[in-house]
Design a protein that fits this description.
238 residues; alpha+beta; 7-stranded antiparallel beta sheet; 6 helices; 41% helix
Length: 238
């Protein structure tokens, strides 16, 4: 659930109202004696997650309550409405810049770690390296048709980080995946064209052939991460 800061603050205001406006923060031992207590806590938790996902990790409680009370009492704001909108826009911009800085720092560390892994991995006798830097290992060769970048393919696959932690698997879901080969990460588009139906390869995908510094939202994949995929090419669709 992804919402804007304004939506989150609106929800928090609602939570404060139904809780008697006592405090903008919940506590670990919040009393949940009634259904509305539980609803209130759940709303606070969900929207708190959304707020945190946007980079907001704290609020000035006293000032928050002061603004809330003045709004409820229909008093004039201490700060001009236009100025408040400008403040919020700048606040969101500051958060984005802070997130980008943290993301870049994490990417630099992951790229260095990934490069070391790839250099060592490339020394293994059964690992091949393409011109783009994609690395792969043949687990089992196939005898069927090889796809082109314009083909749709059916595969089974497992994706892991270089730590060995799994982040995605069609095997775990119990069903194959089918997709156009030109609509996936570059490492897949290139790598699967090396395969034939029935083959199983393991790919070691550098960050620039995977998600770069922009991994899928909510994924455990970090910016700049090298990814490992074991892929079984089941069928090339006509």
């Amino acid at each position: 659930m992804k919402v804007s800061i304004y939506s989150v603050l609106t929800a928090l205001l609602f939570i404060l109202i139904i809780n008697g406006c006592e405090s903008p923060r919940g506590t670990a031992d919040a009393s949940l004696e009634s259904r509305m207590d539980s609803v209130s806590y759940s709303l606070g938790f969900f929207y708190g997650q959304s707020l945190a996902s946007e980079g907001v990790d704290s609020l000035q409680n006293g000032q928050f309550i002061a603004g809330l009370n003045q709004a409820l009492e229909e008093d004039s704001s201490i700060i001009d409405q236009v100025a408040m909108q400008a403040l919020m826009q700048q606040f969101q911009q500051d958060i984005r810049q802070s997130q980008q800085a943290r993301q870049q720092e994490a990417a630099s560390e992951n790229i260095a770690e990934g490069q070391e892994f790839l250099e060592e991995n490339a020394q293994k006798e059964d690992v091949m390296v393409t011109e783009s830097g994609l690395q792969y290992r043949v687990i089992e060769e196939g005898t069927g048709e090889s796809p082109t970048a314009e083909d749709e393919v059916e595969v089974h696959y497992r994706g892991t980080l270089i730590s060995g932690e799994e982040f995605d698997s069609s095997y775990s879901r119990g069903e194959t995946a089918t997709f156009p080969l030109n609509r996936v990460i570059p490492g897949w588009t290139e790598g699967l064209q090396l395969m034939s139906e029935g083959a199983t390869y393991e790919f070691y995908v550098p960050a620039d052939l995977a998600y770069g510094n922009n991994p899928p939202p909510g994924s455990i994949i970090e910016p700049g991460a090298v990814l490992i995929f074991e892929v079984e090419l089941i069928d090339v669709k006509e």
